[in-house]
Amino acid sequence: MVNELRYQRMRGQLHSRAGGAAGKTAMNALRVSWTALGLALLVACSSGARQPAGVAPKSTGETLVYECRDYEFVVRTGAGQIALYLPDDYRVLGQVRAASGARYEDGDVVFWSKGNEASLDVGSRRYRGCQLNRARGPWEDARRRGVSFRAVGQEPGWVLEIQPERNMLMVADYGSRRVLLPTPEVELLDGLERYESQDERHHMVVEIELHHCYDSMSGEAYSNRVRVDLNGREYRGCGDALEPL
């Protein structure tokens, strides 16, 4: 409910981090398994474009967003196979021998990639010259795990993810510090959203203000200014609501 209210309130100004790259029916059926994978995933870099020194290693799987002309799709990598999320379908493709690059097939669906370029065949449809948008990967991964809001900051690098009625995850100090707390009821204070949660070791306050914000390192534009107070230490950055699946 909180996510729906926030998304409706921000809709006019939201800079979309993950737009309709998969069908809702297939995605909702797979959200539980994606969430389980996500709990083990350290979202390593703040914007997805740079990984600062000192960040803990990524999990073996990675979420990738490919943008073609008038088409886009999402790939989740795995050992010897990929999960392919299309606007109207979901497929698991196995790796096959390729003269160069990496090739995966399942029936009449063929995915090939080399570097940042990819091609996709779906039956008689052909998509060529698709480009990897690496910066969108962490945001798309979060959205598919049910995260309703994501924020990032620099110096030191940090990431905040909020799952409504579940947990708030703060990954701070370039990944060396992780705090997972229950998501509390949101307080609405004069255009400010406030969350306060604690356990026996940690106390965290999150304040989200609907105001244009720019990442201090990349210059990326966001729709919200975010302040996090974790055990008395303040972190400031930017964030966006994520469109629900």
Question: Can you tell me about this structure?
Answer:
There is one protein chain. The protein starts with a helix and ends with a strand. Helices cover 13% and strands 47% of the residues. By secondary structure, the protein is mostly beta strands.
User: How many angstroms separate the termini?
Assistant: 14 Å
Provide the residue-averaged pLDDT: 82
| Uncertain runs | 1-5, 7-16, 19-58
Structural class: mainly beta
Strand neighbour order, sheet with most strands: 12-11-10-9-17-16-15-14-13
Beta-strand portion reads over 45%
Tell me the overall shape.
elongated
The helix/strand order is HHEEEEEEEEHEEEEEEEEE
The whole-angstrom Rg is 18 Å
Major sheet details:
9 strands, antiparallel
Number of strands: 17
Measured as a percent range, the helix fraction is 10-25%
Count every helix, treating DSSP H or I runs of 4 or more residues as helices. 3
Quick summary:
This protein has 245 residues and is mainly beta. The protein has 3 helices and 17 strands.
Task: Chart the SSEs and their pairings.
Blueprint: H1 2-10, H2 24-39, E1 63-68, E2 71-78, E3 81-86, E4 89-96, E5 102-106, E6 109-114, E7 117-122, E8 125-132, H3 137-144, E9 149-153, E10 158-162, E11 167-172, E12 177-182, E13 187-189, E14 192-198, E15 203-214, E16 221-230, E17 233-241
Antiparallel strand pairs: 1-2, 1-8, 2-3, 3-4, 4-5, 5-6, 6-7, 7-8, 9-10, 9-17, 10-11, 11-12, 13-14, 14-15, 15-16, 16-17
Defining traits:
eight-stranded antiparallel β-barrel, elongated, mainly beta
